[in-house]
Fold these 3 entries.
Entry 1:
Amino acid sequence: MQAGTPLFPVQASTMASRVDNLYFFLIALSAFFTVLIVALVAYFAVKYRRRRVDEIGAPIHGSLALELVWTGIPLILAMVLFVWGASVYFALARPPAETLDIYAVGKQWMWKFQHREGQREINTLHVPANVPVRMIITAEDVLHSLYIPSFRVKMDAIPGRYTQLWFTATRTGEYHVFCAEYCGTNHSGMIGSVYVMEPEQYQAWLGGGGAPQGASLAQTGEQLFTQLACVTCHTGGPTQRGPALNGLLGSTVTLEGGQSVTATPAYVRESILEPMAKVVAGYPPIMPTFQGQVSEEQILALTEYIKSLPAQGGGAHGGAAPAGAPAGTQPAVPDGGTAVPPGSQQPQR
Ligand code: CUA
């Protein structure tokens, strides 16, 4: 299992040492000033103690040099912490352009993980080493928080919203997964393990070595698309009453009333659960809600299916712009990013 000191989990991701170094610096800085201040208080209390009952303190008229020093030094220290902390934060908040995407759904009281290739796991997560992995996270019921201490990453799982975190694991092994947000009776039991594998082992595992074989997430979504009868209205032909969905994700959609939105997975999710929230221009507001009929995991599968549709073929979905997010930006929610073949690259830093 894990080595490491009793106080600190092992450093098992590229970010771990950066987070720890900042943390150790903060502790050292706090310890230094604590010792300095306590020592000076004690020393001055003795040195300047009252020796006679009628003794009166010496008048003090200020010292410009002293004022400058005790303003300047804390200012410099605060700025060092700000710049250092911000650089670590930005590195944690912005995944590399190319990541292996895995979905996480928090639910009382378990973590469900879905790989795009179709593998599904509960309370265990298999990832390749030395490949940037992005977790796209949501919750089925209440607030949870996905926490992998050895990677020094943590992100809230919020019902109705997609959040993300990313990491590049640097050593193989088994590491803890926790829920770090109180979510009810069995919150403390909402734990699991991350297994970091060599990329080749991970490929083998995806191929069925460790999990039941199944349809890919997009294929699961395709089945749902038919089962839920989405197919009736959202593909071409005489029964088409809603916009075709080819090339939808990342495109700009014009709505009834002239506004436009970018089609993110959050937009797709909302359109499935609350079809009246954003009605596409040129189509009647007739879609029924699927609230209560599809789980968050199924919505992810449907989104993956829509993502997998060829860009050509369906035609307009309301004044669409070319698909694809602007280069060099990382949206806060998943885009149409492609998975990186594990082992084909070094971590991008
Ligand atoms: Cu889920 Cu605490």
Note: The radius of gyration is 27 Å.
Entry 2:
Amino acid sequence: MKLRLHQFLARSGVAKNNFEIAQMIKKRRVRVDNEVVTAESFVFDTKRRRVFLDGEEINLQPTRYFVVNKPKGHSCQRGEYPNVTDLLDNILRNEPKAMRSLFVVGRLDRETEGLLIVTNDGKMASQILQPVEKVEKEYEAYVEGGLTDKDMQTLETGVTIVVDGEDYKTAPAKLKLIKRIKIPSSGKVTSIVQIIITEGKKRQVRQMFEKVNHPVIALKRVRIGALKISDIGERWVMELSRNDILRALE
Ligand code: URA
């Protein structure tokens, strides 16, 4: 497997964050075979070369796979608190390197709840994120107002949202109105909608509903491929084998 030196150090769990990795490399503490390497982008075959930190050999952490039921308020961004990785503390209390090697696949906004995959397997992560793989992500959204059939058709066909400062037309989506509720005190209507997308652009679902003038009030991811939120039951975190997760993403 070919990796950049930065990726190798991240997945071996020797550093708390990207800054620490950059410092290790810059301060000439890292060797690949007999050569001190000072470029984070140095690419090498991890099966053929050996990596040393301060003279001690380091290795990739074995691949691990977790599904997490992220509560509202937790962040997926490294260094922000409370963090989704805090939810893994109980399981990985005695495995700091494994803990530090993990990253979140397909982040959720802080205010979104629901299903997340946390792993240190970069190949599997790109499989979930690559649009060509078309892994379905299903959300339950509470949106302001009464969503009409026309709104749903517009969203199904695709709307233009902003991704990295550029206009982006969303790929076809599937929508289903679950129900409309009227709040007696205010008379206001809220629609509960199922939306299935295959992409994962930043704030995609929120941006899509804003486009049809029905801003999201609450959002929950309930499925990724065949993995359902109900599979986790009452727990926050469940560890899966590589086979389990690959089967769920087929
Ligand atoms: N779409 C959003 O808008 N937010 C998320 O967290 C996930 C998908």
Note: The chain has a mean pLDDT of 94.
Entry 3:
Amino acid sequence: MTAAIELRSVRRAFGATVAVDDVSFAIEQGEFFSMLGPSGSGKTTCLRVIAGFEQPDSGAVFLEGLDVSGTPPYGRDVNTVFQDYALFPHMSVLDNVTYGLRVRRVPAAECRRRADEMLALVKLADMGARRPAQLSGGQKQRVALARALINQPKVLLLDEPLGALDLKLREEMQLELRLLQRRLGITFVYVTHDQGEALSMSDRVAVFNRGRIEQLDAPEALYARPRTAFAARFVGGANVIEGRYAVRGENIEIADPAAPAPAGTVRREGTIVDTQYQGAVRRWQVRTDDGELITATRPDRADTSQAREPGARVALRWAHTHMIELAAD
Ligand code: ADP
Ligand code: MG
């Protein structure tokens, strides 16, 4: 099947800053594809290259197999939802949603019919007459979504669309977006700096660092087999041991220094420097005698939380099989 989107060796620099540095990937039709990375890693620039708001300095962009590198944004069958919603404040919700259709001179009755359908889809059926200022953040985001979806794009580009929402609403919207995407079968390209969001929503995740893709994988593979120290730390905050191995905190046991280590385990002695209660789990930060800071994450049961305070001597141990060998960054 032809890829919905393909980037081939795309590079985009702003002066001395190389925002996107030789990036290549292909996104399948109907895929939920996330671009994950810290601020400044090139996600937005990459998205804008797909949308046509930015021109690559070199490389090419294909939509359904066609080279669109020279095609302006309005000539591409993609729509973008921005973090700040970019709604027209003086227009009603209904007029915001139908804007794209009215520009294309779609008859009023059809505009109305499709807008009602979209507003029902995003659960804003009774809100058509309101102004954006009369809506909550989550409602504004859904209007922005309806306004993009009404054009029936094959591809929807979303740039940190939930960034302005509080945690509970963000989690609700994550689920709604995912369900909507599945139902409509549209290809989503989703930009986020939130690794939990990327893991929970995506079919595949591209981890960006300094304008390059460090790893591109399904969420489970990304978590279980990070390829680089950066990917290991950025996704799920793994420990990086000796710069060459990753170990997840939940796979590290905290034991008495006098206890013998079972066969097949790696063992480090050290001193607890900090503990943080996090509800379901407690995080233990231990400075090992060879100078590494290692975080163990254990279920917060009395047996681990009572006896061990900062300053206590402990042994950390984990099974050899939990060590993930990393490639050089
Ligand atoms: P992200 O979305 O991952 O935060 P961006 O793609 O926005 O990253 O930015 C990548 C890099 O390119 C950053 O260093 C940013 O400052 C720079 N950059 C992005 N857009 C511009 C621009 N229009 N002019 C100058 N520098 C830019
Ligand atoms: Mg950005």
Note: The mean pLDDT is 93.
